[in-house]
Write a structure and sequence with these properties.
With 271 residues, this protein is α/β, with parallel strands linked by helices. α1 links the parallel β1 and β2. The two termini are 35 Å apart. The structure holds NADPH dihydro-nicotinamide-adenine-dinucleotide phosphate and ligand LZUJQKHR. Ligand LZUJQKHR binds next to α7. The ligand O=C(O)C1=N[C@H](C(=O)O)C[C@H](O)C1 binds next to α7. It is an enzyme of class 1 (oxidoreductase).
């Protein structure tokens, strides 16, 4: 059987390079294209070389259309505006679109959902097995604990990260809200500054730290009078996200169009 052809978007970025290295060492898949932002310095360069490998002959381009016509899937860790555009193209080509990009707005999500009527989209704020397992645990624990337990989510990332709270923090917040049976938007404290008043009972709080080269750390805290339960995940390498994304792409082939999550890919949706 021929290797499955994958395009990597954001090819010269931190995740793009990690994916190109992982695809190169994974049997059954092949890098068929590499995309960057129009005008990016990496356009025209060999994607293997950019990722620190031997040249692979796949030049980075800023023209996704021709690449997507000749691919079975695209893995996309870029920026919200790019992801929304790529989703429309991937839907046109009926190929699998794996989306790791975070910082998506409500409008962006609506456009991704629309695109998923024609193509398989797998989207997650965190593609790692560990975080998705943690989300299932958080949902279960939140179901058992009442509002006497304040839920707080603390995250830390490297100093190049541009969005907050992280996609993972929001995913974990959603898991907690689902477990508790509440709407996250109506029960979130995403920023605290100045004289805020006492903590609102039943709300889910988010706190953001940025610094150095931290790959990604998340702690979900259930705090009550006299006791505190904490669940933490620490990412030590971006390879865990790339592995999850590649698994999602392979899982998506041949599936019917729709909007899927990593919980679907990993069989955790029922937990
Ligand atoms: N879901 C998950 O498991 C994970 C999600 N992420 C998310 O993935 C995204 C990328 O992260 P990271 O790799 O660290 O970021 P980087 O900034 O290192 O990489 C993003 C790349 O995408 C490029 N890009 C921007 N616009 C376009 C476009 N129109 N077409 C093609 N490429 C484009 C950027 O180019 P330029 O710099 O020139 O703008 C950059 O090279 C972030 O949203 C991050 O939060 C990250 C890790 C795991
Ligand atoms: O930007 C990052 O680096 C990461 N982004 C994702 C997020 O927003 O949660 C996943 C991971 O934590 C790394």
């Amino acid at each position: 059987m021929a290797d499955t052809r994958l395009v990597v978007a954001g090819a010269s970025g931190r995740m793009g390079q990690t994916l190109i290295r992982l695809i190169a060492e994974t049997p059954g898949v092949v890098l068929s294209g590499a995309i960057e932002r129009p005008g990016a310095p990496a356009v025209g360069q060999d994607s293997g070389k950019v990722a620190g490998l031997e040249p692979n002959g796949v030049l980075i381009t800023d023209d996704p259309l021709s690449l997507l016509t000749a691919a079975e899937g695209i893995i996309d860790f870029t920026a919200p505006s790019a992801t929304v555009e790529l989703a429309a193209l991937a839907a046109q080509m009926r190929i699998v679109h794996v989306i790791g990009t975070t910082g998506l707005s409500k409008e962006d999500f609506a456009r991704l959902k629309a695109a998923s009527r024609h193509a398989v989209i797998v989207q997650s704020g965190n593609m790692s097995l560990g975080v998705n397992l943690l989300a299932a645990v958080v949902k279960r624990v939140a179901r058992s604990l009442d509002e006497d337990f304040d839920i707080e989510i603390l995250e830390m990332h490297h100093n190049r990260k541009v969005d907050a709270p992280s996609g993972t923090a929001l995913l974990l917040g959603q898991a907690a809200a689902d477990g508790r049976g509440i709407d996250l938007d109506g029960h979130s404290d995403r920023v605290r500054d100045g004289h805020t008043g006492a903590r609102e009972k039943g709300h889910i709080g988010f706190a953001t730290l940025r610094g150095g080269t931290v790959v990604g750390e998340h702690t979900v805290i259930f705090a009550s009078e006299g006791e505190r339960i904490e669940f933490a995940h620490k990412a030590e390498s971006r390879v865990i996200f790339a592995k999850g994304a590649l698994k999602a792409a392979i899982w998506g082939f041949g599936r019917k169009p729709g909007y899927y999550s990593m919980a679907d890919v990993l069989g955790l949706a029922e937990l």
